[in-house]
Amino acid sequence: MNLQDRVVVVTGAGSGIGRATALAFAKQGARIAACDLTQERLDTLGAELGDRALVLRRVDVADRGQMAAFASAVHALAPAADVLVNNAGVAVGGLFVDTTLDNWDWILGVNLRGVIHGCHFFIPQMIEAKRGGHVANLSSVLGLVPLANLSAYVATKFAVRGFSLALRDELAPHKIGVTAICPGMINTAIVTSSRIAGKTSERRKMVIDRFHKSGSPPEKVATAILDSVRTNPAIRTVGVDARVMAAVTRFAPGVMAMLSSQLQRRFGVI
Length: 270
Description:
Elements: E1 7-11, H1 16-27, E2 31-36, H2 39-49, E3 53-58, H3 64-75, E4 83-86, E5 92-93, H4 101-129, E6 133-138, H5 151-171, E7 176-183, E8 195-196, H6 204-214, H7 218-231, E9 235-238, H8 240-251, H9 253-258, H10 260-266
Parallel strand pairs: 1-2, 1-4, 2-3, 4-6, 5-8, 6-7, 7-9
């Protein structure tokens, strides 16, 4: 896809992977429609995008009304998006028995319903435009590998991966590709803003430091998303840790079970 003047929608674009993705597509000449929950971050992104900014809007992706209004603002300026990146995400850590229903509502609202809302309000116009396109949904390596003490996060990311694979088959006749992006440890602020309960909360600072020191830069994920638009893989892992864990899970699941405790230590949950 030649991205010059194509419309690219990115949710959660104010920081981390979303910001890096918006800037990467803009560098290729795309026009960016971005939303985020923090206006200050959107203002900064707008200054960075310059004339590549199409729509910048403060949106809670879990709120269907706000997402509908965001889509309407985009479609008032362009008949359809060419690329949709459902990136917005949050994290909840801790044992299942320590995870409140309020926290379940929060993470399901952003990580799963946010993806559904993005698809619901943008894909029909992509189909109607009859010019193809691509949808990239942010799952995680923890959408491939289940991990104790992160059951709520794992549930949402497995759901996003499964949804993406099903959606891929549905949209193939319309020449719209779908990729589940599955990054490993990425240096973003998701841990800082996460909700962590029980004993796991005592290790928050250690986990933040680990992500900061060992996580790959968000630009690496942005590059993978750009490449996915061109190559249309069903699943795209990002980072050596994600590739290794995905391969071991696929070809030697028993080994992955044995390595579970080591993986939990890497993510700082035990």
